[in-house]
Design goal:
Blueprint (H helix, E strand, L loop, with lengths): L5 H4 L12 E2 L2 E2 L21 H12 L4 H11 L8 H13 L3 E5 L6 E5 L1 H9 L1 H18 L5 H19 L5 H20 L1
Antiparallel strand pairs: 1-2, 3-4
C-alpha cells in the first residue's frame, strides 16, 4: 500500500471518525477535519470521505482548488466550508496517489486539477460510498436553509490561515505589524459598513 506523504501523517491523530485504511478496492484516502468546517459535517467526512468527494468533483470538471471549495460550500448550503489548509494538501495527496494530474492554467497561473484513468477507476470502485456522501451533503444543504453564506465562512478561514502562516514566518517588524493591523482594521470597517 502506498502511504501518504509524511507531511500528511502528522494530522492522522486528529481523525475522530477513522475507518479502516483499506477498502476491498484499495487504499482509502484520509480526511482530517481541522478548521474550516462547522455545524458537524465532520460526521459526514470520516477517513477518506472528503477526498472521495473532491475526486468526484474533479471527475465532473477539471477544477482549481478555489472552485472545489466553492462547489462543496454550495452543495451543503454553507453547513461546511473546507479551508484551503484542508483542500490543498488533499489535492497534493490525490496527485501523489496518481488520481489527478496538475497543469498550470494560462490565466493567473492557477493549478488546474484533472482526473486520471487511475482516479476514475478508484472513483468507480467506490461509487456507492461517493453517491451516499453526495446524498447526505444534499440533505445537509436542504436542512441548512438560511444559514450563514458559505463565501463568508470561507473568507474567514482564509484570513485565519493567512495570519497563521504570516506569524509562522517569524517576528514582525513594527512597520509590518502596523501594516497587518491596518489591513485587519480596514477589513473590519468594510464588514461593519456592508
Amino acid at each position: 500500500m502506498r502511504h501518504a506523504h509524511p507531511r500528511h501523517r502528522d494530522h492522522d491523530h486528529d481523525c475522530r471518525f477513522a475507518r479502516p485504511d483499506r477498502t476491498e478496492h484499495g487504499p482509502r484516502l484520509g480526511h482530517h477535519h481541522r478548521g474550516g468546517g462547522r455545524s458537524g459535517l465532520g460526521r459526514f467526512f470520516a477517513h477518506g470521505d472528503l477526498r472521495l468527494v473532491i475526486l468526484g468533483l474533479i471527475a465532473e470538471k477539471p477544477s482549481h482548488g478555489y472552485e472545489i471549495i466553492k462547489a462543496i460550500e454550495e452543495r451543503v448550503g454553507g453547513a461546511y466550508s473546507p479551508s484551503p489548509g484542508v483542500i490543498y494538501p488533499t489535492l497534493t495527496l490525490l496527485e501523489e496517489l496518481g488520481y489527478v494530474t496538475v497543469s498550470t492554467a494560462a490565466e493567473g497561473g492557477r493549478k488546474l486539477h484533472e482526473v486520471t484513468e487511475q482516479g476514475r477507476a478508484f472513483l468507480a470502485a467506490n461509487r456507492p460510498t461517493h453517491d451516499a456522501l453526495l446524498a447526505r451533503m444534499d440533505e445537509a444543504g436542504r436542512a441548512q436553509g438560511g444559514g450563514p453564506a458559505p463565501q463568508i465562512i470561507r473568507a474567514m478561514e482564509n484570513l485565519k490561515l493567512a495570519l497563521r502562516m504570516r506569524m509562522a514566518r517569524g517576528p514582525l517588524t513594527a512597520e509590518q505589524a502596523d501594516a497587518v493591523a491596518a489591513a485587519l482594521d480596514a477589513a473590519a470597517t468594510g464588514v461593519e459598513r456592508s
